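A reminder from the course coordinator: this example appears on the midterm review sheet, so study it carefully.

Given structure:
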């Protein structure tokens, strides 16, 4: 204490600068700690829930922050090529949802008003419904891209049609249990349609060339009518991976 006082008296400017540096380090440390615990508490998706996982997602977050790439902008995608969606998707109404800034897992902030039970049940039953209906071409299993925390549908290898991605494998789609959004693998033309009509956005690692550009984040539906649109998008994913749209 005494030596600090001496220092302050001897060189007030340097003392002020080091006090500011210490304060900044403490604030930054507290911010990291809060962000880290929030990430663990929310669920880390497919990333290991420890500090090395956190460093990994933080690296992507920084890369993205400096890239200036807006995931809600479809203009980097090609609108041409195969499509399994209806010609014209209706425009999603209202504001686009706010996305959690940590980049991974790609999630929106949960809605303040919960989805009504019938719509919620229909949404979360989609993987099982199509795995049963098309059991010769699809199977239900835990999602590998989500670290096996939720159900996903997969194309059976014999029915796999074209698309190939090292990370995604045969996974077509899954629904996120905490906030009702989805990831669906679409053709690039269909990702273009979904993003342009405001139903979803691009995947952050796609523009870094790490995952196929058709891996699409679909916003949580807010009503039964929106679940119906989301189901069309889900079916388009099945069409993309199997060549047959249900
Ligand atoms: C984090 O978890 C992964 C997978 O469980 C493991 O391979 C890695 O060694 C862990 N890292 C640390 C720092 O604990």
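Designed residues:
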């Amino acid at each position: 204490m005494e030596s600090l006082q001496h220092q302050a008296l001897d060189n007030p400017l340097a003392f002020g600068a080091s006090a500011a540096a210490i304060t900044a380090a403490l604030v930054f440390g507290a911010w990291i700690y809060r962000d880290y615990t929030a990430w663990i508490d929310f669920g880390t998706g497919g990333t290991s829930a420890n500090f090395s996982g956190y460093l990994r997602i933080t690296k992507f977050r920084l890369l993205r922050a400096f890239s200036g790439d807006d995931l809600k902008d479809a203009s980097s995608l090609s609108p041409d090529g195969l499509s399994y969606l209806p010609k014209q998707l209706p425009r999603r109404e209202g504001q686009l949802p706010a996305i959690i800034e940590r980049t991974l897992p790609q999630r929106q902030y949960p809605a303040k008003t919960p989805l009504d039970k019938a719509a919620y049940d229909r949404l979360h039953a989609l993987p099982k419904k199509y795995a049963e209906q098309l059991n010769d071409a699809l199977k239900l299993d835990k999602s590998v891209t989500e670290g096996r925390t939720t159900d996903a549908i997969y194309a059976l290898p014999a029915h796999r049609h074209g698309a190939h991605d090292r990370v995604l494998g045969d996974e077509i789609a899954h629904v996120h249990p905490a906030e009702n959004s989805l990831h669906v693998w679409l053709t690039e033309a269909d990702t273009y349609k979904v993003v342009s009509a405001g139903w979803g956005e691009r995947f952050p690692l796609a523009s870094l060339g790490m995952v196929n550009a058709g891996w699409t984040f679909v916003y949580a539906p807010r009503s039964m009518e929106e679940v119906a649109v989301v189901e069309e998008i889900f079916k388009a994913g099945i069409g993309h991976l199997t060549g047959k749209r249900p």
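The chain has two domains: 2-65, 117-242. DSSP finds seven helices and six strands in the chain.
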